[in-house]
């Protein structure tokens, strides 16, 4: 069995061959590869058979036939599909005929993201690559009859410098082997040995992802062999030097505690500096990760709201992983594409204060709630993110301590800005330029670059 490959590391420490041991103390001691902290912004893509009904959310199957079922989902099926229709019948309808991996890669590039995470398998169990452990429930055997993971990985790597990552659900809602192990209190390991472990080893060896984004760890880490897998990933895998992982490796006791970086919960946004690298995984659609046809415009974040999320996140030491859900036929719908391109246009002007930045001594201004801060690793500049343009064109910020040689500029605007000390030499009053639309290099938020402040 392939599981024996990762168990081999259990004996290798006796020979001095394993740097990281299969326990959390050792796994958690691994330094996070620097590229991830520098990246700041990534794109999440939830795509699967749930994109066919595109109703309610990516949890459609569970909400239809789980315990308890959701009446709205049950009624949707009764009103729109024949009696006896099964979730598996959606499989051939997941066609992806308009999926153009090169076009997707170009949109990802235009977004300004430095990494992308695609769902290789969600809780429904459908694999987006030709897994040998998911016969007839994968994108090669039915539906598109294509290796969707492989095609996007190749396009991203050939057309961009974006890091390619994969989401992987450890469990499956209705897989009989998982339900068998669950009924046995997870003392048996049939699902893990025959399905989960071969699949996760396969995506690492076949597609060499820079991120392994685990989810659905609805069992103890001892059942999943989480630490054994991560020891193999860090010591022996083809991505051992650059791979990063999150914290979703067991049912309880892992979130916000173990792993490479912390996600803690969906849409995690603490609003204050954290002592460990973290990620805010959130969605352009306010309610769903998968594509939902009924989402109104009011249910979509506008670009100003998304930039606010990015700024808050990076000021507090996190990365933003922003999700869009493609359609069953392989399209990124225009409203999602627009948001991604808007983000990219803003980052093209203001990325200097974002990429590679680190938190400053203050995250949010003490007086002005519309101002957040970052700084550089050399501490040679402080970036003040202004989320709201003041009506009188003068912004007061309280946190920086200015000196006579303090210099203030605005990213995208070539001239130095005038400023003066605040009341009692506390803070700064900064005079913003009067700009007409032809002089405006960006919208939605602006970044002041402060030199010689502390």
From TrEMBL:
GO cellular component: lysosome
Alphabetized GO MF terms: alpha-L-fucosidase activity
Catalytic reaction annotation: a neolactoside IV(2)-alpha-Fuc-nLc4Cer(d18:1(4E)) + H2O = a neolactoside nLc4Cer(d18:1(4E)) + L-fucose; a neolactoside IV(2)-alpha-Fuc-nLc4Cer(d18:0) + H2O = a neolactoside nLc4Cer(d18:0) + L-fucose
Domain Alpha-L-fucosidase C-terminal: from-to ranges: 363-450
SUPFAM superfamilies named among the record's database cross-references: (Trans)glycosidases
Biological function: Alpha-L-fucosidase is responsible for hydrolyzing the alpha-1,6-linked fucose joined to the reducing-end N-acetylglucosamine of the carbohydrate moieties of glycoproteins.
Quaternary state and interactors: Homotetramer.
Sequence similarity: Belongs to the glycosyl hydrolase 29 family.
Record-given protein name: alpha-L-fucosidase
């Amino acid at each position: 069995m392939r599981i024996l490959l990762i168990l081999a590391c259990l004996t290798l420490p006796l020979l001095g061959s394993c740097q990281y041991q299969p326990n959390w103390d050792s796994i958690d001691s691994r330094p996070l590869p620097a590229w991830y902290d520098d990246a700041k912004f990534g794109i999440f893509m939830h795509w699967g058979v749930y994109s066919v009904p595109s109703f309610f959310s990516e949890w459609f199957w569970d909400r239809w036939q789980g315990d308890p079922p959701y009446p709205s989902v049950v009624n949707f099926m009764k009103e729109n599909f024949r009696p006896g229709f099964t979730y598996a019948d959606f499989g051939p309808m997941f066609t992806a005929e308009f999926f153009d991996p090169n076009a997707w890669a170009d949109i990802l590039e235009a977004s300004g993201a430095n990494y992308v995470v695609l769902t290789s398998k969600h809780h429904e169990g459908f694999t987006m690559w030709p897994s040998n452990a998911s016969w007839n429930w994968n994108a090669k055997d039915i539906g598109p009859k294509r290796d969707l993971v492989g095609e996007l990985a190749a396009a991203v790597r050939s057309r961009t410098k974006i890091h390619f990552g994969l989401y992987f659900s450890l469990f499956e809602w209705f897989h009989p082997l998982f339900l068998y192990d669950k009924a046995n209190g997870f003392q048996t390991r049939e699902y893990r040995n025959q399905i989960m472990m071969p699949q996760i080893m396969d995506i690492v060896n076949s597609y060499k992802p820079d991120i392994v984004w685990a989810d659905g760890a609805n069992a103890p880490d001892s059942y999943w062999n989480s630490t054994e897998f991560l020891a193999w990933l860090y010591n022996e895998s083809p991505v051992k030097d650059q791979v990063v992982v999150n914290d979703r490796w067991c049912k309880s006791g892992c979130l916000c505690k173990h792993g490479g970086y912390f996600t803690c919960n969906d849409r995690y946004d603490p609003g204050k500096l954290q002592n460990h690298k973290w990620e805010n995984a959130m969605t352009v659609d306010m309610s769903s990760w998968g594509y939902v046809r009924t989402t109104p415009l009011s249910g979509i974040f506008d670009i100003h709201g998304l930039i606010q999320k990015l700024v808050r996140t990076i000021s507090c030491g996190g990365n933003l992983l922003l999700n869009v859900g493609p359609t069953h036929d392989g399209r990124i719908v225009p409203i999602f594409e627009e948001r991604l391109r808007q983000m990219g246009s803003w980052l093209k002007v203001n990325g200097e204060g974002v990429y590679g930045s680190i938190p400053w001594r203050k995250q949010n201004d003490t007086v002005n709630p519309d101002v957040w801060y970052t700084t550089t690793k050399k501490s040679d500049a402080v970036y003040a993110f202004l989320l709201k343009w003041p009506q009188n064109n003068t912004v007061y910020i309280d946190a920086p301590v200015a000196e006579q040689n303090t210099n203030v500029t605005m990213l995208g605007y070539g001239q130095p800005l005038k400023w003066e000390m605040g009341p009692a030499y506390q803070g700064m009053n900064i005079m913003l330029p009067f700009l007409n639309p032809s002089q405006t290099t960006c919208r939605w938020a602006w970044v002041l670059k402060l030199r010689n402040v502390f």
